[in-house]
Write a structure and sequence with these properties.
Length: 686
């Protein structure tokens, strides 16, 4: 052993040892997992371990009398050990060391104990390549990738042929000759829609269009297009959506680094900063998504109603295009956009009867229309959502197997058991501990609000007053319910614990529906006025400061870091609706020409493609954070500069991953739905 002292020092050096700042939140004596594995590589070191090594992580409760350590600390201790050691053997060694340390402390007059709670090897026994779910996900990725490649090659061929024919037609036209008919399997597209969407090929038959729906070329152009929609009135929503997702990513970055920092007390220092309220009170950023969702579902609904009325009046065939185009510039416009099928439910409803009563036949048709609209939304959103759920479970299972930290969330367990709640969009109705992808509570709420919104809009077809009263009663009842629950639990809102009432209130639809209903009101108003509102000068002068004051007070109003019971009740109930009211002014002012620099920022063309990617970016960014952060072999040192740097990287990675997922799943789903509704192929299938 003496001759091998230097190599054994390497093993000792890779193991966790006492390090300072325990009182400032350092709970990690981890050593280095990478060093433990790397020191066995003879080709890189003159001296290596005389035996194969592996790494273990033990969780130890350390208790010292109050004069030295105010509270029990749970320490994670890393140990580089011989490969032949087992968990029980390592735990026995640690218990012997704990007994000896307690005796030395007692001899010094200090009462101290240490208790090993568990020992686990890193990496663990899990092999991702043997996981059946990995085989399924891998097969899906390979199949979709091959489909995308084949579709892209085929579309590239069609585009080259189309350009050649166009050039030939141009030359013939210059020679005053008629263009010869082209005997191909596709029909030349001459519609205005194609030119607007920059379709660079011929319109093909249904089966060809089904294949081409996965093309990277056309889907990529559609996603990355910065061309504004024709009306341009609602482009400010793109900026709202994109900036709100950046806000969400920033908050989750802070929470992730808080968890693995070796100076956790720095979180308390950070929370004292006035600007940190933008993190602690960031729940309002999700209210922006709800507001946009309610606004758009109402505008789309009313536009479809107007088109149906015009068709009924003119008695001419309809040639309506995609209902989402003038709002989003692209049907796949991402987060919180409650899309209505381009063949509106009015295709299934006959002209309004003269009687105000709803007949059984009409009720049946309205029910069928409701199911069609709901199915359209689910089919559009679920493929990308389900894929991210699968990727998330595999990634976090792999991470848990290879991390030296304790998992912050247990998606490797909950997603395996409860994934079906997510795809049914009911996961927000269950406890947080049982949720798969806890951040996906937004998806469940938005879908539930979509159901409520569609029902109210269907009722409004014949009973506008009843629908309006129902909306107001629903809004007031949400306030009353939230206030009652908050007071019942004696809840006091605190900057330090933004998720303290997650299960009773935070993710529940009865406390979150306010902004969505406000968005519906704004959507109705903008549609009825056609965004042509002359706002008095004095109202503009009052409206902007008032709106900004509401936003500022909701984010930065918790000056003392907490609210008492009754202020909290009103803050978390009416506050969410107040956020929607503030955004209502911003949306109306920007859409009606009174937005100034704010509208110029929110309607910036560069936000359009990023806005289309927000849905998948929201879904995938926590998985990226957990995977990259928890595979470190040591903690991070919390500083705002580190948070900002990581935040920028996470945002870029999230949108790059979102682009890939949108190309593979979301954009093809939208195009396939368009084909299914009769708008994607030629009239004559060849």
């Amino acid at each position: 052993m003496k001759s091998s002292r230097a190599p054994l020092c390497l093993v000792y050096d890779a193991s966790g040892q006492y390090s300072p700042n325990v009182l400032f939140g350092n709970e990690y004596w981890l050593g280095s997992l990478n060093a433990c594995h790397d020191l066995q590589l003879k080709q890189y070191y003159d001296q290596v371990s005389p035996f194969p090594t592996t790494f273990f992580v033990a969780k130890i409760n350390l208790t010292v009398d109050g004069d030295h350590l105010p509270m029990t600390r749970s320490m994670l201790v890393g140990q580089c050990m011989p490969l032949s050691c087992t968990n029980k053997e390592v735990q026995s060694l640690l218990q012997a060391a704990e007994f000896a340390a307690a005796n030395r402390a007692a001899a010094a007059g200090i009462r101290a104990t240490a208790e090993t709670l568990y020992v686990r090897p890193v990496p663990g026994p899990y092999n991702v390549l043997e996981d059946f779910k990995m085989h399924i996900i891998g097969a899906v990725i390979i199949l979709v990738s091959l489909w995308m490649s084949a579709a892209s090659l085929y579309e590239g061929h069609l585009e080259r042929r189309y350009r050649a024919e166009q050039q030939q037609d141009l030359e013939l036209a210059n020679n005053n000759q008629k263009s010869p008919a082209s005997d191909t399997s596709c029909n030349e597209s001459t519609s205005d829609e194609d030119s607007k969407n920059s379709l660079k090929r011929e319109r093909c038959g249904v089966w060809s269009e089904i294949m081409l729906s996965f093309s990277i070329l056309s889907n990529g152009r559609a996603i990355l297009s910065t061309r504004r929609p024709n009306d341009g009135a609602l482009t400010c929503l793109h900026g709202m959506r994109f900036l709100s997702v950046l806000w969400v990513i920033m908050v989750h970055t802070y929470l992730t680094i808080f968890y693995i920092a070796d100076n956790k007390q720095m979180r308390v220092v950070t929370e004292r900063n006035f600007l940190y309220q933008s993190v602690g009170n960031a729940s309002y950023c999700v209210d922006t998504f709800f507001f946009i969702g309610g606004l758009l579902v109402t505008v789309l609904f009313l536009r479809s109603e107007d088109k149906k009325t015009k068709r009924r009046t003119n008695k001419t065939p309809s040639n309506d295009k995609d209902l989402n185009k003038n709002i989003n510039g692209y049907t796949n416009s991402a987060l919180s956009v409650s899309v209505i099928s381009e063949q509106s439910f009015y295709e299934d409803i006959l002209d309004k009867p003269k009687s105000d009563a709803i007949t059984r036949r009409e009720l049946s048709r309205m029910t069928r229309s409701f199911l069609v609209l709901l199915s359209y939304r689910l089919v559009r959103l679920t493929p990308a959502y389900a894929f991210v759920i699968g990727i998330n479970e595999l990634a976090l299972r792999y991470t848990h197997n290879h991390t030296v930290f304790e998992p912050a969330i247990f998606d490797h367990i909950t997603c395996e058991r409860y994934w079906w709640r997510n795809v049914l969009y009911i996961n927000n109705l269950f406890p947080q501990r049982d949720m798969c992808m806890v951040w996906s509570w937004y998806m469940a709420n938005d879908t539930q609000f979509y159901v409520i919104g569609i029902i109210l809009l269907l009722i409004s077809v014949k009973h506008v007053k009843f629908a309006t009263v129902s909306l107001v009663l629903l809004l007031v009842s949400s306030w009353v319910t939230t206030i009652y629950i908050s007071v019942w639990y004696h809840y006091k809102a605190r900057i330090q614990e933004p998720f303290e009432m997650f299960d009773p209130l935070y993710d529940k639809p009865w406390s979150r529906v306010g902004p969505y209903l406000v968005g519906m009101m704004v959507g109705w108003y903008l549609h009825k006025t056609k965004c042509q509102v002359k706002i008095p000068y004095w109202l503009v002068v009052v409206g902007w400061p008032t709106s900004l004051a509401i936003i500022g007070s909701l984010i930065f109003g918790m000056v003392d870091g907490y609210f008492e019971v009754w202020p909290t009740a009103f803050y978390i109930s009416i506050g969410h609706t107040g956020w929607g009211v503030a955004l209502a002014w911003v949306a109306i002012a920007c859409c009606c020409g009174y937005g100034g620099l704010v509208n110029s920022l929110l309607s910036y063309n560069g936000f359009l493609p990023l806005s289309r990617l927000t849905y998948c970016a929201y879904l995938v960014h926590p998985t990226i954070m957990m995977y990259t952060t928890f595979l470190l072999d040591g903690p991070l040192h919390l500083q705002n500069s580190i948070v900002i740097t990581l935040y920028a990287g996470y945002a870029v990675l999230a949108f790059l991953a979102s682009f890939a997922i949108s190309l593979a799943f979301e954009a093809p789903a939208v195009r396939l739905l368009k084909i299914a509704s009769g708008g994607g192929g030629s009239k004559k299938v060849r």
